[in-house]
Write a structure and sequence with these properties.
Length: about 140
């Protein structure tokens, strides 16, 4: 009786630990395994500009804060050594949004093949649309 109960408790504990590890990894957008164990390395890029993507005719008057972010990427050592800032694209997609107040949007990161983004800091930007009076000619 106690042997079967002990086995069930151990299995339930192992399942819970596995679920917790995977859940935390998903929330952090990273692997629970250290990069060096998989032959991968990490590199952090500073001051990458955030590009605004929109279906609106003119996005030049839309501003984001902050304008630059920090991105950590992961990949094979030789790829990361050759990787340049201009190859990492940091964007905010405002497609379908013409105006809003207090809008925060998640930052998207695109990297070349063989390179994965680990995290971006900050993960969101504050979006500021011009007021309607600023858009009208004087």
């Amino acid at each position: 009786f106690f042997g079967g109960l002990l086995a069930e408790v151990v299995l339930a504990g192992a399942a819970t630990l596995t679920w917790l590890t995977i859940t935390l990894a998903i929330q952090k957008q990273t692997s629970p395994l250290p990069a060096v164990n998989r032959g991968l390395y990490e590199r952090t890029f500073q001051n990458l500009p955030v590009t605004v993507m929109s279906s609106a005719a003119d996005v030049r008057s839309v501003t984001v804060d902050p304008k630059e972010v920090q991105v950590k990427v992961q990949g094979e050592e030789d790829l990361l050594k050759r990787l340049e800032n201009r190859e990492i694209h940091v964007t905010v997609d405002l497609t379908g949004i013409e105006a809003a107040q207090g809008l925060r949007k998640r930052i998207d990161v695109s990297t070349p093949a063989g390179v994965t983004h680990v995290w971006v800091d900050p993960p969101e930007v504050q979006v500021q649309f011009p007021s309607r009076t600023q858009d009208q000619p004087k």
